[in-house]
């Protein structure tokens, strides 16, 4: 061995280790194809104790055959894994810790499993690296969390590993690239393996990034998370939607935006073709969108409000509709949608005028969080989109409209709008002295409170009472006054007074519906372009195929 | 035609238009392969007046055969194009405007062409959409700047369009995806077309994203932009590097970082194996890096300081060295580097503790810009990395170390360090009352001054006088006092006094070299682990192959 090749092998330990592991399964694998019924053995051979392992648990798409199989390995062989899971949403994600296979967890979001994460943390069964937003977690895969093994899911693959991820590409490219280019091992579960590469609708990820493909025992699990039944939209939400359109979208000329997934923003989508049309705003506001294919957006699309939608992921039932509207949605040459959470989060951060979402709890300074006691839900994507990106340099009319001085050294601002009804359904106030997240953070030993969106990033608070134009606040005290003025009869709201409200309205810091030319009596469900899921199907020309649970008409 | 398919064709106008154009060149193309000598005809057939056209002008790699060819089309046939070019660096990029082929420009950076852009703008030959950072520009491709045509460059392609971009993948994936999935047309120039797909080293972009491949008349142009000759590092830069290591890296436990491309940060790289070693800091600081493969990083890599480097792009001459160090760099299965500017900018924004760079001009409040009169250089990537990302939620020791209160609602901060010698080589002060960018912005009719990094994002200013710990500032006035205290005999510095300096040092707001245990006499070039490019080649075991212009030893 020459001194140069000796020196090189010293610098290729990851590659050597990868080849060593691949060799262990060469007799089991048929080229790149792993036998479904040997997957537990294979994982045991390919994964070593202490490995950093990415498991594709996305917001929607789950590499669940692989995670279920990983939970079956022998903990005396594979243990102390450091799992990296964008969205911890499967029971087996936590079983891995209970069985001693995994020890440490880095994640961005946990839905149904948030309670168990919290318990395991208390019981010392699990240790947390950090809780991230989605995009931070991807970013760290290229810095200090480079994975040894990545387990992902796709619809189809050919025998060379070329992968069709289907409409729900989501996080997959960002997860795979980090391992494929640092001598990690990438295993893809797919619903179907095709013999002829021409039978792949398209290639979303090249085969040379993938090490192994395995056909899963059943199709990967996927959940419809972005479907809101219009029947559940309340008149108060219609009122708030009207205020949003007049007092924010129209006023600041919002052209590009991200909507949250709550009923508040669904209401906005549903009154664009009625109330928005009446105001003559079509083509003037909200032309470009970054969000999943919300069924409630169908009427606005059909009436020509929407020029483009780029998606984080897909939505069950929307596949045929999206395919039939390629002028609006991003689709491949095969006709099916292409989503990409990393690029869409980037677009939602840097390329849109506004983020608008609902929150459950906000303090008097505008800090909000969906975290509640006993649940470590994580951050997901909202903090990334719901902040003012100081790295932005290009200007748009909405961004410039928030300037407060003539100084050439002042920056424009992204609109970050929080919609919140002053009381929750159960009668608890939503606007409170201190958000639960502060105490949860303390209890869980987190270095800081898990705040979803910080008050200093919020530009507008919209309640059923009115809109507080926080970006105009001259001080923290001033910001608090504005929030109190629209906080109704919550404890925070009771600190305000009729005189203060009158002054804030006069000076343009707060607007009530009447200041915006909105009659509360107009705010009825009759403004909704679709009043039920069946109406959405009609609007879609029968292309939208709602999942069973929404077929209650 | 059924009503559903009628309705569908109404929603597939982009696709229909694409197919109409593709049909126009079907007799010229051999499958996906375009004949080199017919490229001007082909571009004339595929591009229509008013199109949004992305031209891959990257920081380094240039789709120059395609841009030169585009400049030769008949302006009576193809005109009024809206060009989107990340880095405007080729003469023909501007010729396109002079010839009337293009009218509007959106870009992120302009090097050698910045003077001409400025002139063309004044003369009304060119209109500017906006000036962006790289990552904002990519993001807008998915929102309101979706391209009709994308012209890119790779090393090799097969006849199915599968693309090997080589070590300099850079912007290509982000540019291609935006067109490939919204019925745009993607044309790739390559240095070589291989008949057998197996002759591709690897696939960086799948063929199903590409419409046409053309072999260029000569290999694409690529420039070494990140090579700094150690011979030009001055003793003052060594002193500042020592201060950075002791007063910032060590103090805040900086684990992951991005270095700018100036000589100041090259000096830091070069004294890690000497000064850093002496301080016993190896393995304790700067283990993970996001930057191009700087040759001046070689000694630190060889002595074991560097665990990982993820790269925006490549660097000419570093190919073999990078290939031989896969434990450190991101490389493909073929052994060559994979870079990715979008992912690296993401990592540089969200996943690292610190950005540290040099600036040419800074005002007393810490605002800085490299923009000077008569040149519209744009922003490039610095503002994205050189700000505190308010969307970040995960904590690291360095990020938490900048907390100023015990409030659970305070956020940690990214370190944004500006290194600036108080006077430029020509004797002009670098720290000034007002940066030129303010006037340039006004003259060019920009809505705001083109500030590269804003003072409120800067956490540390490091001059040859000392370090100002700006993150501790209690007010804008306080921040200005700290900067003045390290601004030497510049007009800004003369506003300070010995008393003020003493007070700031006593309270830990400012540190001089002696406060950090640094003797100015130690700051000599003898601390540089490599004193010349020849030394870097030696360190690399002969693997680094510097471009001719750096072979002056």
From TrEMBL, chains A, B:
InterPro entries listed in its UniProt record: MadA, NagB/RpiA_transferase-like
A Pfam family per the record: Mal_decarbox_Al
GO molecular function: transferase activity
Top-rank taxon, per record: Bacteria
UniProt cross-references to NCBIfam families, sorted A to Z: mdcA
Protein name stated in the entry: Malonate decarboxylase, alpha subunit
């Amino acid at each position: 061995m020459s001194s140069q090749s000796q020196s090189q092998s010293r610098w290729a330990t990851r590659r050597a280790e990868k080849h060593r592991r691949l060799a262990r399964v060469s007799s089991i694998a048929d080229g790149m194809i792993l036998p479904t019924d040997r997957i537990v053995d294979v994982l045991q051979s390919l994964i070593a104790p202490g490995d950093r392992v990415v498991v594709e648990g996305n917001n929607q798409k789950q590499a669940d055959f692989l995670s279920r199989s990983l939970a079956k390995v022998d903990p005396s062989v594979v243990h102390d894994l450091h799992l990296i899971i964008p969205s911890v949403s499967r029971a087996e994600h936590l079983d891995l810790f209970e069985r001693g296979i995994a020890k440490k967890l880095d994640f961005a979001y946990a839905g149904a499993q948030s309670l168990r994460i919290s318990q395991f943390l208390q019981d010392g069964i699990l240790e947390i690296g950090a809780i991230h937003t989605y995009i931070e977690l991807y970013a760290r895969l290229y810095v200090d969390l480079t994975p040894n093994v990545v387990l992902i899911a796709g619809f189809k693959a050919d025998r060379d590993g070329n992968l069709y991820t289907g409409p729900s590409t989501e996080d997959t490219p960002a997860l795979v690239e980090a391992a494929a280019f640092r001598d990690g091992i990438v295993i893809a579960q797919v619903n179907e393996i095709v013999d002829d590469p021409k039978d792949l609708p398209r290639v979303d990820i090249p085969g040379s990034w993938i090490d192994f493909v395995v056909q899963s025992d059943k199709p990967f699990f996927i959940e419809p998370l972005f479907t809101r039944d219009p029947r559940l939209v309340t008149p108060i939400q219609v009122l708030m939607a009207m205020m949003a359109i007049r007092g924010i979208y129209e006023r600041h000329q919002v052209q590009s935006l991200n909507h949250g997934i709550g009923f508040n923003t669904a209401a906005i989508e549903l009154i664009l073709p009625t109330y928005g049309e009446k105001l003559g705003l079509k083509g003037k506001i909200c032309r470009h969108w970054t969000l999943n294919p919300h069924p409630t957006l169908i009427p606005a699309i059909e009436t020509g409000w929407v020029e483009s939608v780029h998606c984080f992921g897909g939505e069950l039932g929307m596949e045929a509709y999206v395919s039939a509207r390629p002028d609006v949605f991003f689709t491949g040459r095969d006709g099916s949608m292409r989503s990409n959470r990393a690029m869409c989060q980037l677009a939602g951060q840097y390329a849109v005028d506004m983020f608008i979402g609902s929150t459950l709890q906000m303090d008097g300074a505008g800090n909000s969080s969906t975290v509640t006691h006993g649940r470590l839900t994580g951050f997901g994507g909202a903090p990334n989109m719901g902040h003012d990106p100081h790295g932005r340099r290009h200007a748009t009319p909405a961004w410039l409209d928030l300037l407060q001085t003539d100084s050439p050294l002042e920056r424009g601002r992204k609109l970050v709008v929080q919609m919140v009804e002053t009381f929750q359904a159960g009668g608890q106030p939503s606007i409170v002295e201190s958000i639960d997240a502060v105490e949860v953070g303390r209890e869980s030993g987190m270095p800081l409170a898990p705040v979803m969106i910080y008050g200093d990033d919020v530009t507008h608070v919209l309640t059923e009472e009115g809109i507080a134009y926080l970006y105009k606040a001259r001080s923290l005290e001033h910001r608090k006054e504005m929030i109190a003025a629209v906080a109704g009869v919550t404890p925070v709201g009771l600190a305000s007074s009729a005189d203060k409200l009158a002054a804030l309205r006069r000076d343009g810091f707060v607007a009530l519906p009447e200041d915006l030319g909105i009659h509360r009596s107009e705010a009825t469900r009759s403004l909704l372009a679709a009043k039920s899921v069946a109406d959405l199907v009609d609007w879609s020309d029968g292309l939208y195929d709602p999942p069973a649970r929404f077929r209650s008409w």
